[in-house]
Amino acid sequence: xxxxxxxxxxxxxxxxxxxxxxxxxxxxxxxxxxxxxxxxxxxxxxxxxxxxxxxxxxxxxxxxxxxxxxxxxxxxxxxxxxxxxxxxxxxxxxxxxxxxxxxxxxxxxxxxxxxxxxxxxxxxxxxxxxxxxxxxxxxxxxxxxxxxxxxxxxxxxxxxxxxxxxxxxxxxxxxxxxxxxxxxxxxxxxxxxxxxxxxxxxxxxxxxxxxxxxxxxxxxxxxxxxxxxxxxxxxxxxxxxxxxxxxxxxxxxxxxxxxxxxxxxxxxxxxxxxxxxxxxxxxxxxxxxxxxxx
Length: 294
Prior knowledge:
The strands form three sheets. A four-stranded antiparallel sheet has the order 1-2-3-4, with no helix packed on it. Among the domains are: 41-90, no CATH class; 115-241, Lipocalin (Beta Barrel), CATH 2.40.128. It is mainly beta. The protein contains two helices and twelve strands; from the N terminus they run ααββββββββββββ.
């Protein structure tokens, strides 16, 4: 289908046939918690505060006092600062913190339990209702994908959303959201929001293949893949009369789409094209293409 629209970090589209190299991908991310360390205060030179100043010289020495006050924090930091690496070793790397989350989404769940014992209703905005939840095993720990909708007078125009929660063992709250996306009804309302859990990137860690259905006669929708270990989208495409599902052999995505010829009724395409995509170091490439009769 011409509706295919895959995003690319490189921003380039190859000259190969459709889906030979999909019109784009997102680069494989580095771990979100690979953040730079801050240099120890002990690296800065210490300053001598000097002897006490007689009372009758306070006025002339005001500039000196001001400089002294400014130096106090540095001098305090220098105490015990002979080993510049000591503060680095004592400070653990922070946990992943999402740049933004859907409004109203809780920021943590405090019970130390497995994914099967976490109530999905505790992972969504307070006025919403759970429409689906899926458990996953990732290289970064257990994860839960949960989808919701907010009830309203029009069942075809409901605010929806989806989020990824992961279990942590770093001394903070055991369950925290690491990624989420909201679908307000005021823009392009969804008819359904679902997810499939499978390793589609070939790294041995579960991913989420998310379908946001907008409906219509062509069953239109947008498919996204979120790497659950790094909480990062790595694939996105949209179109009608098509499906995108996990592929087992080879590991990747299977895209099936209708191929219409002039005169074909919308219900009855002449052919069906099946394309298998694999993630090769952050770039989705075509493993095979097969066109058959329906």
